[in-house]
Amino acid sequence: MQQLTLNQLVEITGGKLYGDENVTVTMVAPMDKSAEGHVTFLSSPKYAKHLPECKASVVMVKEAHRELCSTNVLVVDDPYVAFAKVTQALDTTPSPATEIASSAVIDKSVSLGENVSIGANAVVESGVNLGDNVVIGAGCFIGKNAQIEANTKLWANVTIYHNVKIGKDCLIQANAVIGSDGFGYANEKGEWIKIPQLGSVVIGSRVEIGSCTTIDRGALEDTIIEDNVILDNQLQIAHNVCIGYGTAMAGGTIVAGSTTIGKYCIIGGATVINGHIDIADGVTITGMGMVMRSIPEKGMYSSGIPLQSNKEWRKTAARVHRIDEMNKRLKAVEKMLEGDSDS
């Protein structure tokens, strides 16, 4: 169990403490379930009414809410960011591997940095370069000539294909597949002819990739994921896609080939993005968005249909099917009205 003093919390968050710096905490908890030994936070003003009764050893709040607290208070600029930093400091998640397992298969040509850990039954092929403190979980496959830089961690059963490059301080969750073939085929008189995917995947530093996410290698050039990108579970990133610095993509999103997504974009879950288009920096797409064309300007975009009762939805669907007919009738009425005004 990790334990931190409130003085250590000040150092971690950069906040200002009002209370006893020697009090210790061992875990982060929701405000309504917190108790002695817990640290909690207020991220939404609507919950401020619960501050006087909060039983946590310390509450992280903005200055505006300090006087409402009846316990030790840590005033911070952004309580949610402070929560993230404190959670990291208290994290007790075990490592995917802690040594080089005897059952791991490692080619003699592999370059190993200092303090590398490789789990049971992992396979590391020839020409691979693993940086300092890299952790490879049980059952992972690292293909020929792949490069993984310092402090990157792979959970169990991750597959990294040949020639893939992964930067520093990345985290890749279980069963992700990076560098599989892009979906490239030519058709000759009804017969599919596979196009070998000769590019690779280049992933920057401080990138996180969720479980069961797949990132295809490029056809001729590389698929590129820039620094500080976070990808949720079960995404499909097709060949030659480029994702810019600081972009976040939620679960179930599909990005078709040769699309470029700018910096600091936020893509909601289950979004589908067409191929060969460009999305500007700073674009937010809400959940279930269907992006068919390029988005040249930053802003928020939506296209998913909100949930209705089945009865309402059936009426909506029926009207959608009649929209062409309704449009023709509307134009006819407009034309008629224009004729009447001319007379």
TrEMBL record:
According to its UniProt entry, the function of this protein is described as:
Catalyzes the N-acylation of UDP-3-O-acylglucosamine using 3-hydroxyacyl-ACP as the acyl donor. Is involved in the biosynthesis of lipid A, a phosphorylated glycolipid that anchors the lipopolysaccharide to the outer membrane of the cell.
Pathway(s) this gene product operates in, as recorded in its UniProt entry = Bacterial outer membrane biogenesis; LPS lipid A biosynthesis
The family line of this record is: Belongs to the transferase hexapeptide repeat family. LpxD subfamily.
Signal peptide positions (record): none
Species classification: Bacteria, Pseudomonadati, Pseudomonadota, Gammaproteobacteria, Vibrionales
Is Transferase a UniProt keyword of this protein? yes
Catalysed transformations (reactions): a UDP-3-O-[(3R)-3-hydroxyacyl]-alpha-D-glucosamine + a (3R)-hydroxyacyl-[ACP] = a UDP-2-N,3-O-bis[(3R)-3-hydroxyacyl]-alpha-D-glucosamine + holo-[ACP] + H(+)
Q: Which UniProt keywords apply?
A: Acyltransferase, Lipid A biosynthesis, Lipid biosynthesis, Lipid metabolism, Repeat, Transferase
A GO molecular function for this record? UDP-3-O-[(3R)-3-hydroxyacyl]-glucosamine N-acyltransferase activity
Task: Give the source's domain of life in one word.
Answer: Bacteria
Q: What is its EC number?
A: 2.3.1.191
How does this chain assemble? Answer: Homotrimer.
Q: Which gene encodes it?
A: lpxD
Locate the active site.
H239
Protein name (database record) = UDP-3-O-acylglucosamine N-acyltransferase
Please report the stretch or stretches of sequence annotated as the UDP-3-O-[3-hydroxymyristoyl] glucosamine N-acyltransferase non-repeat region domain.
22-88
Entry annotated with the keyword Disulfide bond: no
